[in-house]
Give the backbone structure.
Amino acid sequence: MSDTKILLSESEIPKKWYNIQADMPNPLEPGLNPQTKKPLVPADLSAIFPMSLIEQEVSTERWIDIPEEVLNIYALWRPTPMFRARRLEAALKTPAKIYYKYEGVSPAGSHKGNTAVPQAYYNKQAGVKRLTTETGAGQWGSALSMACAFFGLECTVYMVRVSYEQKPYRRSLIQTWGAEVLASPSNRTNAGRKILEMDPDTTGSLGMAISEAVEDAVSHDDANYALGSVLNHVLLHQTVIGLEAKKQMEKVGDYPDVVIGCCGGGSNFGGLAFPFVADKISGKELRTVAVEPTACPTLTKGPFTYDYGDTAGLTPLLMMYTLGHGFVPPGIHAGGLRYHGASPLISQLAHDGLIQAVAVHQRAVFEAAILFARTEGILPAPESSHAIRHAIDEALKCKETGESKTILFGLSGHGHFDLTSYDLYLEDRLEDYEYPIEMIERSLATLPKI
């Protein structure tokens, strides 16, 4: 029998991150200072990021060395396994071959540690004492609190209120690693207080939580801000996923026809897909598909334009697909996919036709998650289950056509802290939600004038 698990040794952990900016056919438009609307200079970011991360943010070097201390911590869970989903294939009666790269084996239960550890490391090197951040579903807040514990940093996490209430055990995990976690919007910041004055019952959003975390960082000299997705250096760190996946596919003599990942801000999708997109840029035939919820259809319904990364307009203006920085998504259970904008890197690649995007409904996502759990045994996070949904759809197309395509998807984390969501689905109390176009247009009316 061929192997079910495709494994690498610790010596095969990538020693360098891959920077897709070196190979993009069209470079990114520059980020803009939120006050002057002029292109960013390093000094504009120095209040919240160490210079080492600012340099990575703007670098166009193809390969960037991973520090030894970061590699030593990566070895706690990397390399992560790749699985051939034979039982899922059999259940679907498909001729397709389905592989998945599983990041849920990390201590925090998701891919987020791949960037949390280097961000904590570089801030520690710069003499920072505390990191502030936001978190949607809690995966990023968990990973950063863990990384801060490793490097002796304090950590403050602003958790989107709906997830704070839906996922109490993710909150407990963040606190176990020593971080302070607050429901956002909170009374801790001016941004939070202003939002609560306008809408005391708001469910919150990642944009609001980012505003609070950035304000906290800039108002304290010993604190910096850490972001779990969207920015270039974050997606850079995540490319260890795709680099390992390419080695694993080589081990079994296969190569994907389609690479699939869930996409909110873009860190998981970019981390898996970018090393394969590099092959596509070089002429290789494959498709890369970013899967998002119909309740937050950034890539599929948003315009490609400049927008703020946060609700209060404290962050730089970035060229990206966006639903408007004032967008407040419904409280779907894939909390990590509820962000109004997409990574500038993913947005540019999508704009250039190198990445496709699809949106799927919440109930169909959980249907796929249940089938996956009952065949492969892993309970997937709601976010990851968006990728599973589309992988199943691709495999069913192969069943219709008789084609034997190779499908690779990213399983970005486990769903052990998401059982409330599964309860609602199993009790038939989970609803689909497609964000109305008129509400998107209302949100887009607040776009900044450039």
